[in-house]
Structure formats: structure tokens, C-alpha cells
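README: folding subset

This subset contains proteins for which both the sequence and a predicted C-alpha cell string are available. Records are stored as plain text. Below is the entry for Putative glycoside hydrolase/deacetylase ChbG (UPF0249 family) (248 residues), shown exactly as it appears on disk.
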Amino acid sequence: MKIPHNIIATGDDLGLNPSVNKAILYCFEHGYINSTSFLTSTEYFDETVELIHSNKTISNIGVHVNFASGRPITQFTQRDFLDNEGNWDLKKTNRKVYFLSADAKATFMKEIYAQIDKAVAANIGVLHIDSHYHLHTLPCFWRLFLQAAQRYKLKIRLAQTYYEGNYIKYLYRKRINDVFKSEGSQYSNYFESVNHFLKSHEAGVVNSLTEVMLHPDFDENGKLIDHFDQNSLPDWVNYLENLKLSGL
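--- output ---
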């Protein structure tokens, strides 16, 4: 299977668990994806590093910075963002309007750096960054992620570039994307869900570099699925197969 040159098909959540790792490798091997994003803060870090080093087909690797689940990997002092057991509390980190103190910014910045450094220290060729649950696009975080991208000379995932029925949200996302682009840090020119991409490109023609997000996994019956939106990955595979049949 051949992905068109101006499409980045990213398999998110590499490192989440063995099933996801197996599915992402499978998708690389079958040409369904050409990029992935690595969660470096899970218990499966070592086996994921081994998987990457043992399979050169896994390429275009980014760090999927995680403030959403599990524990921080640094001595994280901002307890307001953690639950009583010291795990990330997504209800707290995913606040749409939140202003961080200077100390909080420094603490989050240290955590971002540590999650990237963990991959770099394992000899992973990191090319881009994004985040679990798109937290890097929130008002309190996006400047920190841009700073990290520039420090490590990485590209950064855009906020979703399509209109979802909320004009304020669309304008906000456009604003931060314009900053990413003005700094030359964007990973693509557009970033879309599979559903929106397929609605917008029924003929298979893509005019500008576009990233499409996928979450490969296998269900209990061994069927390839998208663990975030079950139909997205099968729909994506059908799209690629139709491109092949049409000769595009």
C-alpha cells in the first residue's frame, strides 16, 4: 500500500500497550501509516524501544507527551494537576481556560523535556511532538510545546484545522496554528480526523501536506480497529485500497 506523498498518516499511542504496539507495527508493514507518536511515560517503554530498534519500518517517530494518564516521570510538584494517588488528573490538565503560574510553567516544561529526553537517550530519532488528548493545543500549554519543539528542533502537530461548528474554537485554533507556521515548526499544513478527511477528499486528491490521526489496535478477535473511533482505521484502509485501484 502506498500513501500519497503529501499525506502524513500518524499512528498515535505507540507504547500504550502491547496490542497497540503490535497494531502500529502491522500498519507500518502494510503501508497504512507512515508516522507514529510515542508515549514514553508508560510501563511498556523498554519493550517499545526494542520494537522500534528491531523494526526499521517504524519511522517518522514523534513523542506523544502525556499529561493525561499514568504518572509524571519527573518529581512533579504541582499537585493540583494530580489525583490523590499521584496520577495525572485529566479533568484538571484538560481545562480549556487556565493560567499557569511561573512555577507551574517551569514544572510542566521540565516534564515535557524529560519525556522527550527519555526517547532521545534510548537512541530514538525523534522528529516531531504532539500530546495525548491534544493538550498541547490548550491556552496554558501551547507556548511551552512550541518552546520544546524549538529547543529540540522538532516539528509540532497543529490543532485541528477544520471547522467543527464552533467559530470561536476555530479562530483560536487558527491563531495558534498561524504561530506554529510562522515559526516554521508545523508538522503539516493541515491536521484532520479520518472522518473529516474522507468527507473532504472523496476523489482522493490532496493539495497540501495534511496529517491524519489514527489509533491502531486489535480487538479481542484480532480485528484491526481504531481504539479511539472504531471505524476510522477500517475506513482509512478502504480509502487507501481505493486509491490503489484507481491508480492514484
